[in-house]
Design a protein that fits this description.
The protein is of the alpha/beta class and 219 residues long. The chain contains eight helices and seven strands; from the N terminus they run αββααβββαβααβαα. The chain has one domain: Uracil-DNA glycosylase-like domain (Uracil-DNA Glycosylase, subunit E, 3-Layer(aba) Sandwich). The strands form two sheets. The chain has a five-stranded mixed sheet, with helices on both faces. The protein has a two-stranded antiparallel ribbon with strand order 4-5. A hairpin with a 2-residue loop joins strand 4 and strand 5. The structure holds uracil and iron/sulfur cluster. The site of uracil has 13 residues, from helix 3.
Length: 219
């Protein structure tokens, strides 16, 4: 395990989710407060806030990028195609999704209309920073042993904008957030693989990462 303490740069934002954060309350109170967050502009076009879900005592907490089209409509994280793939990979790695807590770096869906379809847009750094107080509050409440960043957006939200997923995937790092933080790919990267062979390879590597994570959770 690399004993590197990563510090996130703290930008001073005029507005952020911090303006909406209740003090010292439960996960449920946090979720209710987040439903009314206007910490950045993303609430304007999205259907609803998609807060994290899962066991409040989870030993492992997964962080994605932001809700997608299905999550935005249903109001739950990782329920669309990427979420189904995540559930399948977790099962193969022996991690029960109901023992985990699953959330996102950004709690509102960012998209552009293309015809009748809403196409995912990557959140800007300033939007990720604005939303981070919710993520940090979730981590403070759940106090997981292991925090897993799924993809670069989550990794940078947790570990700073200089974090490079390609170089640091699979390495546990210490952080003020949790005893162990680790980054792996986002399941939607597997869905975007160019062909079946690549998809199978990416899935196998993802499951390997999750098995390593399962061991650290059990240790
Ligand atoms: N992708 C994410 O990053 N999060 C979700 O909740 C769904 C898709
Ligand atoms: Fe608040 Fe985050 Fe939604 Fe922006 S994306 S309005 S900071 S919950």
């Amino acid at each position: 395990m690399a004993g590197v303490v990563q510090r996130r740069g703290r930008a001073k934002l005029e507005h952020s989710a911090a303006d909406f954060l209740p003090s010292g309350t439960s996960l449920r109170a946090l979720r209710e407060a987040a439903a009314h967050c206007r910490g950045c502009d993303l609430y304007k076009d999205a259907t609803q806030t998609v807060f994290g879900e899962g066991s409040a005592r989870a030993k492992v907490l997964f962080v994605g990028e932001q809700p997608g089209d299905s999550e935005d409509k249903e109001g739950h994280p990782f329920v669309g195609p990427a979420g189904k793939l995540l559930s399948k990979a977790l099962e193969e790695a022996g991690i029960s999704r109901s023992d985990a807590y699953v959330t996102n770096a950004v709690k509102h869906f960012k998209f552009i209309w293309r015809g009748k379809r809403r196409i995912h847009q990557k959140p800007r750094r300033i939007e990720v920073l604005a939303c981070t107080p919710w993520l940090e509050a979730e981590i403070r409440h759940v106090r997981p042993r292991v925090v897993v960043a799924l993809g670069a957006t989550a990794a940078q939200a947790l570990l700073g904008s200089s974090f490079r997923l390609t170089e640091n995937r699979r390495h546990f790092v210490e952080s003020p957030l949790a005893p162990r933080v680790i980054a792996t790919i986002h399941p939607s990267a597997i869905l975007r693989a160019p062909d079946d062979a690549a998809r199978r390879r990416e899935m196998a590597e993802f499951v390997e990462d999750l098995k390593t994570i399962a061991q650290a959770v059990a240790a």
